[in-house]
Specification:
The complex is a heterodimer of chains A (363) and B (292).
Chain A lengths: L9 E10 L2 E11 L4 E5 L6 H9 L6 E6 L2 E2 L10 E4 L11 H11 L4 H14 L15 H13 L5 E5 L7 H18 L2 E6 L2 H7 L2 E6 L2 E6 L2 H4 L4 H6 L4 E11 L2 E5 L5 E5 L9 E6 L5 E2 L8 E12 L3 E8 L4 E7 L12 E6 L5 E4 L2
Parallel strand pairs in A: 3-8, 3-9, 6-7, 7-8
Antiparallel strand pairs in A: 1-2, 1-4, 4-5, 9-10, 11-12, 11-14, 12-13, 14-20, 15-19, 16-17, 16-19, 17-18
Helix pairs in contact in A: 2-3, 2-4, 3-4
Chain B lengths: L1 H23 L2 H22 L6 H8 L1 H34 L2 H12 L6 H12 L4 H8 L13 H25 L3 H9 L4 H29 L3 H6 L7 H10 L4 H34 L4
Helix pairs in contact in B: 2-13, 3-13, 4-8, 4-10, 6-8, 8-10, 9-10, 10-13, 12-13
């Protein structure tokens, strides 16, 4: 999705921001197109919020350039960047009514009173808060406050929307409905959006693209491959559960490698052209991939294991399998009445096809 | 069901016992205050009407001499509050925005007057502002003035003293209100297009108003009862109500009249406190009201 001009709505190039010796942003490049939602996913302290504040103009930057709609805004003050921002703790003005809060950015732009009222009314409808205009923020629930913040951030029709962990304080059910609501709104208004979260599930639900941040660097900008084909071990570990096992490539044959591990186990997995024989690698297998052997389809990888640990997760069971030759695997299978929990000590043979594994260069 | 009823009563008893235990915490202080404050206060107020008439009150509120003293007292209190606000608000803002060593040093500077005797500080003003004081001497030596300026024993002289003594009482409530403000509010306002002036007038100032009201109430009420400052810096020419009360008690032994004057101060202080409290509460309920 590219804007009319063919340029990304928001472009961040080589941005660096240091705090003393710490690089909170260490050479970040990001593009976001009109109507696109990019999620920046990362653990706390990885520099997500700093990057957002740099884009909004609250933080100065040591190096790099920021473009909005093709214009260099690196030195433009925040008030004139035309960016809508939603803060983690809402940051609603407690002494103003909902209407006054939403009208604030319009008042700052000296919008005529009549137009101001009309746009506040429209945006209140948009976030399903009709009739709440006269209330004060403290008289609203968390979800309603969230909507007011969102309304205030879009009422002046910015080109870019920044969302800083906006759903962190909401309970699970509310969070899910808000996620979809925000996503619909953002697509409808065609806003180039950066969304920050540490919740990977939320990231997968909301995003066109996901970038994982670590130590001030964006590790990967990948679409849906982030789960199945992560580019490095950090991303693999951070997004979803994983078996991430060290090994060495023994042999490569037609894109498939035979990988050997410390206890002399051997598995088959596909490798790209950037890896060669003899290389030390990390091998990724998502826990839902291996299945009990059922002879319907031959698989390259087959291991006999003993269950040493079980965890019930409601919709699934998680097992720790100790296999022969020191290979330890985490597997997760759906739970249902016809598939009861397997007891600790049970021996079971699991299989998976070589294509379902993923090999990463050891970092 | 009997068992259910007994459970309810037991729960109520428990709650009552807990409240009683809590109330016990306040008993020592209340006893102390009863002995040293409430009983003498009741005594004092009864003196004013002991004769069976309201003559002392009629004198206090009818005689132009005493009315002018009351008027002067209120104008000094008002001027003190206004000047303290104008000086204190920027200092509170400075403290609220400071971090680390700057904050510590700033706090020490504000608190420093508390560590020195009021009398010493007031005498220091005499040395500075007197006819032969440091300031007049310097100005004369530099040839800026030909004869000493009347810096003492007038409205301005007393005002310097009261402002100096009471400034911290303005700074702290405002500072407390400022540090409670979410820093993101300013960022949010800035991101929404507000300049520094708009942020101050539309966001920061309204949110610090409860602190401003509290500080003004404190300073105003404390300056109403100023005694040492007008006694020394007013030099008998600027007389505030506390000085009159003292003269009535120690020189004329007119206790009923002193009592009536005290009651006037007390009642006006309570009224002003309630008025400002009402303003503050109104602001606060709007911000913290919850549905249900």
């Amino acid at each position: 999705m590219i804007g009319v001009s063919g340029e990304p709505t928001l472009a961040v190039e080589g941005v660096e921001r240091r705090f003393g010796a710490v690089r909170a942003s260490a050479g970040v490049d990001v593009d976001v197109a009109e109507g696109e939602l990019l999620t920046i996913l990362g653990p706390s302290g990885s520099g997500k919020t700093t990057l957002l504040h740099v884009i909004a103009g609250f933080e100065t930057l040591d190096r790099g350039t920021i473009y909005i709609g093709g214009h260099d805004v690196t030195t433009t003050p925040p008030a004139r960047r035309e960016i809508g921002m939603v803060f983690q703790n809402y940051a609603l003005f407690p002494h103003m009514t909902v209407s006054d809060n939403i009208a604030f950015p319009l008042a700052m732009r000296r919008t005529a009173r009549a137009e101001c009222a009309e746009r506040v009314r429209q945006v209140l409808d948009l976030v399903a808060l009709r009739g709440f205009g006269k209330r004060y923020p403290a008289q609203l629930s968390g979800g309603q406050q969230q909507r007011v913040t969102l309304a205030r951030a879009i009422v002046f029709r910015p080109k870019v929307l920044l969302l800083d962990e906006p759903f962190g304080a909401l309970d699970r059910q509310l969070r899910e409905s808000m996620q979809l609501e925000v996503r619909r709104l953002q697509q409808r208004l065609g806003l180039a959006t950066i969304f920050i979260t540490h919740d990977q599930e939320e990231a997968l639900i909301m995003s066109d693209r996901i970038a994982v941040m670590r130590d001030g660097q964006l590790k990967q900008i990948a679409p849906d491959e982030i789960y199945t084909r992560p580019t490095d071990a950090f991303v693999a570990e951070f997004v979803g559960e994983s078996n991430l096992i060290s090994g060495r490539i023994e042999r490569i044959e037609r894109g498939n490698a035979r990988i050997a591990g410390p206890g002399d186990w051997k598995i088959m997995a596909p490798v790209g052209p950037n890896l060669s024989e003899g290389e030390e690698i990390a091998w990724l297998l998502r826990p839902e991939i291996p299945r009990p052997r059922d002879d319907t389809r031959p698989c390259e990888n087959s291991f006999l294991g003993r269950i040493t640990e079980t965890i019930y997760l409601g919709n699934s069971h998680k097992y720790r399998l100790e296999c022969a030759k020191g290979l330890s695997l985490l597997v997760r299978w759906p739970a249902s009445a016809s598939r009861p929990k397997l007891p600790v000590g049970r021996e079971i043979e699991v299989v998976w096809s070589a294509a379902d594994g993923h090999v990463l260069r050891r970092s | 069901m009997p068992s259910a009823i007994s459970t309810v009563t037991r729960a109520q008893t428990h709650r009552l016992a807990a409240q009683l235990r809590l109330a016990m915490l306040a008993v020592p202080a209340m006893l102390f205050l009863t002995v040293v404050l409430f009983v003498p206060l009741a005594n004092l107020l009864s003196l004013g009407v002991a004769s069976g008439t309201f003559a002392p009150y009629q004198k206090a509120l009818g005689d132009p001499l005493y009315l002018s003293v009351i008027g002067l007292t209120f104008s000094i209190a008002l001027a003190t509050a206004v000047i303290c606000l104008l000086l204190g608000y920027p200092i509170a803002l400075f403290l609220a925005l400071s971090r680390g060593i700057v904050l510590t040093v700033g706090f020490i500077c504000v608190l420093l007057p508390f560590w020195t005797s009021l009398l010493v500080r007031t005498y220091a003003w005499l040395a500075l502002l007197g006819r032969n004081g440091v300031i007049n001497r310097c100005l004369l030596d530099w040839g800026l003035i030909s004869e000493p300026l009347p810096l003492l024993y007038n409205f301005g002289g007393v005002l310097v003293g009261t402002v100096h003594v009471l400034l911290p009482y303005m700074i702290f409530p405002i500072y407390a209100a400022m540090v409670r403000i979410d820093r993101n509010l300013a960022l949010a306002a800035e991101g929404l297009g507000a300049g520094i002036c708009s942020i101050f007038w539309r966001i920061y100032l309204p949110l610090t108003l409860p602190g401003v009201f509290a500080g003004c109430a404190l300073v105003f009420i404390l300056s109403l009862s100023a005694f040492v400052t007008p006694a020394l810096l007013g030099g008998g020419r600027v007389i505030m109500i506390a000085n009159i009360i003292q003269i009535q008690v120690s020189e004329f032994l007119n206790w009923p009249f002193a009592s009536a004057l005290s009651a006037v101060v007390l009642v006006s202080a309570v009224l002003i406190y309630m008025l400002l409290g009402l303003l503050t509460d109104q602001g606060r309920t709007l911000q913290t009201q919850r549905p249900h």
